[in-house]
Design goal:
By secondary structure, the chain is an alpha+beta fold. It has a single domain (about 25-175), classed as Chalcone isomerase (3-Layer(bba) Sandwich), CATH 3.50.70.10. It contains 6 helices and 6 strands, in the order H-H-E-E-E-H-H-E-E-E-H-H. It has a 6-stranded antiparallel β-sheet with strand order 1-2-3-4-5-6. It is globular, with a radius of gyration of 17 Å.
Length: about 180
């Protein structure tokens, strides 16, 4: 009995230790849609020791040069707890307001856009945003493309929640930028 338990525990431990690397992966559909992206950095957001989500930042060359013209930028979030769609939108719009991004009317327009396709998330769910420079922002989950925002100003504002110098998640920002 003991000889069977030890290999099972070792396998379980190996699977658990590999979760951080897997959590920052892109949904397969992102690559299938022609986005050839390499990781820039990854990290984990916690609050009072509890995991909120794991995040990964991706670009074509594995480097992030602010929002300079070039290839797409992807931010992948793998949730470690549940959030309602309303909570996600409230947190997002709150950060846009705190950072002074866009006008109130623009933020309201963006909130209405994402409300049309964002869903409640559960532990283990992934949501990935792919920002096409000067173009739309596409959102993917494990099943594929779930929606898009066509306003070209949306994507940089969305990414700034994590990547702005004034980000509320400064430790995660450093990890995402690979610094």
């Amino acid at each position: 009995m003991k000889t069977r338990t030890l290999p099972a525990l070792a396998l379980l431990a190996a699977a658990w230790l590999s979760l951080p690397a897997l959590a920052a992966e892109l949904p397969p559909r992102v690559n299938a849609d022609g986005f050839e992206l390499k990781p820039v950095g990854k990290g984990r957001l916690t609050w009072l020791g509890f995991g909120i989500y794991r995040a990964g930042l991706w670009t074509p060359d594995g480097r992030f040069e602010d929002f300079a013209p070039g290839g797409p930028v992807a931010l992948s979030l793998s949730y470690e707890r549940a959030f309602s769609r309303a909570q996600l939108i409230e947190i997002t719009t709150g950060e846009w307001t705190r950072l002074g991004l866009a006008t109130p009317a623009q933020r309201d327009s963006w909130a209405r856009a994402i409300e049309g396709f964002w869903k409640d998330v559960r532990k283990g769910d992934n949501m990935t945003a792919v920002v096409v420079p000067g173009g739309e922002t596409r959102f993917y989950d494990a099943t594929g493309l779930v929606g898009r925002v066509t306003d070209p100003a949306f994507g940089p504002a969305y990414l700034r929640i994590w990547l702005d110098q004034r980000s509320a998640v400064s430790e995660l920002r450093v990890a995402l930028l690979g610094e």
